[in-house]
Design a protein that fits this description.
Blueprint lengths: L9 E2 L5 H13 L7 E2 L12 E2 L4 E8 L5 E7 L9 E2 L14 H8 L4 H7 L14 H10 L9 E8 L3 E6 L4 E6 L4 E2 L3 E5 L1
Length: about 200
């Protein structure tokens, strides 16, 4: 009877590419060519910041909507541009919009807000339900995946502030501020994955 052993090294889920490469070299140097395994999420979700296959973008984390529904926030894959373009927010005037629900805000704004219209024009992986994120959705993305956004300018949210301004987020410094709706800021579409 002959017994065979196998060495398995499991790296943490957030292991860097350099750690993986270093572990592969170490394994090869001791005569083991196996590639180290990376532990996956037990619920099947990708890790925050990873592309979610067939969902049209990168997983930014979970949000709880105004109606208490928990959903995965997907940030659109806009390639090297890191946005879908630039647009003005829209006309002045008070609106009843959510701090949390960009999908509903966008539905209400799409005919009068160039930034919302630009966000809804995005499509990826056969999904056409992208929208302009609400203030809190953009803040989640700023906290979890700021590297997926450009640092040269602000990004519009779908949440207004007063009569003539709306909320925008600066991903370089992590600042949320309101600015005049007539300014052309970047637009990064998002969509939801309901569990």
């Amino acid at each position: 009877m002959q017994i065979h052993t196998q060495n398995v090294i499991i790296l943490p889920p957030n292991a860097s590419a350099d750690a993986l490469t270093g572990m592969e070299r170490l394994m090869q140097s001791i005569g083991r060519a196996e590639t180290p395994a990376v532990a996956g999420q037990p619920d099947g979700k990708p890790h925050i910041g990873d592309y979610w296959p067939s969902q049209g973008g990168f997983y930014a984390g979970d949000m709880r909507g105004d109606d208490d529904t928990v959903y995965g926030l997907i940030v659109a894959d806009c390639g090297d541009a890191k946005d879908a373009g630039r647009a003005k927010w829209g006309l002045d005037g008070e609106r009843d919009l959510s701090q949390w629900d960009g999908q509903d805000n966008t539905r209400r704004l799409v005919n009068e807000c160039p930034a919302a219209k630009l966000a809804t024009s995005h499509a990826a992986d056969e999904h056409k339900d992208f929208y302009l994120p609400a203030r809190r959705e953009l803040q989640l993305a700023c906290a979890t995946v700021p590297h997926l956004f450009g640092s040269e300018n602000w990004y519009w949210s779908s949440t207004h502030y007063g009569q003539s301004t709306a909320w925008a987020v600066d991903f370089e410094r992590g600042i949320t501020f309101n600015d005049y709706r007539s300014i052309g800021f970047r637009v990064r579409p998002v969509r939801r994955f309901i569990y």
